[in-house]
User: What shape does this take?
Amino acid sequence: MTEESIAAAANAIRDGNLVVYPTETVYGLGADALNEEAVERVFEAKGRSRDKPISLAVPDADAALEYVRATDRERRFMREFLPGPVTLLCEKREEVPDILTAGRERVGIRIPDHPVALDLLSEFAPVTATSANVSGRPSATRVADLDEEIRDAAEVVLDGGETGSTGSTVVNVETGEIVREGPNADEIRDWLDAESAE
Assistant: This one.
């Protein structure tokens, strides 16, 4: 992946456009997560219901704390599991638009463990973190698998080769709940059990 293509993707996001980028799970559809119009474009491209929230991706835990109010337990979780194939639900700060969270108080935080994603996020963040597919269709693990509608909607497609196979594990650390099972779910469950035992 060239610096030029990363820069082109970051500039596209900066301009309010959509990009496709690889993560360690599946390909993601990226837009400026704080730009309501750009987030609306993500919903439109995916044909996604507006009552389903979209997560945001950042390059590291310090960056995440600019957009969420994380408890001590959530910070410990970040240090343990991020970057990685995990989405952590945290209380959002005011600058995170309601359209992203479908009006909910929590937003999903994603720090992808993929060099291309992290390079992009070091150039621009936060970026929407949602699978680059039309809702209801399979997630893409290769650029060749992308839905035509997604390819047409994206200004830039970053090809990082084949990715993992399943979406991230979604977890609410404060309630101790795994909302969606994915990679590392067993380790996360063990960690949550150990935390609640203390």
Notes: The longest strand covers residues 86-92.
